[in-house]
Design goal:
The complex is a heterodimer of chains A (113) and B (113).
Chain A (H helix, E strand, L loop, with lengths): L8 E5 L4 E6 L9 E6 L6 E6 L2 E4 L4 E4 L5 E6 L8 E7 L16 E6 L1
Parallel strand pairs in A: 1-9
Antiparallel strand pairs in A: 2-7, 3-4, 3-8, 5-6, 6-7, 8-9
Chain B lengths: L3 E4 L2 E4 L5 E7 L5 E8 L3 E10 L2 E4 L7 E2 L9 E3 L8 E8 L8 E2 L3 E5 L1
């Protein structure tokens, strides 16, 4: 499983767009990039996954450059309720057999009024 | 409602007293795993199970045991708890190993004195 590097923390204000970048230099050809969100005292929850280019859902967008060595989670117009820890994982893919998963320390996003 | 349940949610115990934290999912998922979360260390995988009777170590398995006799249940056993096992524990499940979307339980906060 490719190792990932994310900023430890980020601060933002309500209404701003937040971009969290994850570095994964050793990503393998079959690896997908998956992001989870965790609120205090709750388990993480899946928010978005992608393989290349751009993926968008109702929660976030995920931008992946052509070399796939990094990815950026974009949260549009954040609110106080987006304050959470965001984890980037590499290696999960549909139909894969990856058992050992590494969440790492994640990025703690603090949104201020 | 599709969910992962854990019991107990909170537990205070003493060193050496065997305990079991139960985990159950109602989604017929093949893959289940246990994580512990500690301040500054992020989320670390303890054990995982690819299917019934198939378990394997994660990153921090020392001091823990698991079993998977039924598809829906994956209990975590601490045979002789020690204070360094004081932590927040999460159980998770997914359709199969490597599937991108994992469902997490609400967490069990364990204190060992």
């Amino acid at each position: 499983l490719a190792k990932t590097t994310q900023p430890i923390s980020m601060d933002s204000y309500e209404g701003q767009e937040v971009n969290i970048t994850c570095s994964h230099n050793n990503i393998a050809t079959n690896d997908y990039i998956t992001w989870y969100q965790q609120f205090p005292s709750q388990g993480p929850r899946f928010i978005i996954q992608g393989y290349k280019t751009k993926v968008t859902n109702e929660v976030a967008s995920l931008f992946i450059p052509a070399d796939r060595k990094s990815s950026t989670l974009s949260l549009p117009r954040v609110s106080l309720s987006d304050t959470a820890v965001y984890y980037c994982l590499v290696g999960l893919y549909y139909g894969g057999s990856q058992g050992n998963l590494i969440f790492g320390k994640g990025t703690k996003l603090s949104v201020k009024p | 409602e599709a969910q992962v349940t854990q019991n107990p949610r909170y537990l205070i115990t003493v060193t050496g007293k065997k305990l079991t934290v139960t985990c159950s999912q109602n989604m017929n998922h093949e893959y289940m795993s246990w994580y512990r979360q500690d301040p500054g260390l992020g989320l670390r995988q303890i054990y995982y199970s690819m299917n019934v009777e198939v378990t394997d170590k994660g990153d921090v398995p020392e001091g823990y045991k698991v079993s998977r006799k039924e598809k829906r249940n994956f209990p975590l056993i601490l045979e002789s708890p020690s204070p360094n096992q004081t932590s927040l524990y999460f159980c998770a499940s997914s359709l199969r190993a490597g599937y991108y979307e994992q469902y997490f339980g609400p967490g069990t906060r364990l204190t060992v004195t």
